[in-house]
User: Fold this.
Amino acid sequence: MKKLIAANWKMNKTADEAVSFMKEFQNLVRDGKNADIAICPPFTALSAVSAELKKSNIKLGAQNMHFENAGAFTGEISPLMLKEMGCHYVILGHSDRREMGENDSLINKKVISALKHGLTPILCIGETHEQRVKDETQDVLENQLIKCLQNVGEIKKVVIAYEPIWAISKGNPNQKAATKDDAEDAHLFIRKLLEGMYDEKSAKETRIIYGGSMKPENAKELLSMRNIDGGLVGNASLDAKSFAEIVKSAK
Ligand code: PEP
Assistant:
């Protein structure tokens, strides 16, 4: 399966900065056919990035959404609004948002709503350092997956992002990623869970991507693992050259 390399810019880049990035990045990746590429800017830059992507294979994504179409939800953005902006993907359940109070049942509503509107959710799951040390990683992943995917029939239309919280850079370029073997173990475990929840074929065809300090120095080895179908890249996606290098290391 073709790898998916997705940029999560978090709360970075104004619309002007996003446009400059896109011009530089598109020049560097040219046709970018070796991988599927997604850019998830902040809401305020969606329109500007969308305009830059008109003739490109690169897809646009958002970093969050509300599950309702419209209503009295101050500060929220609906799936219809994301569709109107030209979004293809939406990141859901990121640990930054879980830390702000989002739980699995809310994330489940968002996943269902995204699919209903033809958006591809990038569903983030992952354990904390404390949970890993206590050997709870598998329980945490199973629990999150079961709750977030309740009543989700079309698993192939969901991208799962395994993001061990302890490996997320939070802007620190020296943060260590998971080793390729630890990441592969978690991805294989997730694939097996999906097999049990759905079926072997669907599990095989579902993208499971890795996030947590992926950068040019480690992307190739992480992306060479059998069950790692791509990357969700935070800090290293803010620089066009480093993100282009990561894209190029995906075969
Ligand atoms: C993320 O937060 O989704 C992420 C992967 O961040 P980073 O690459 O900076 O660890």
In short: The chain has a mean pLDDT of 97.
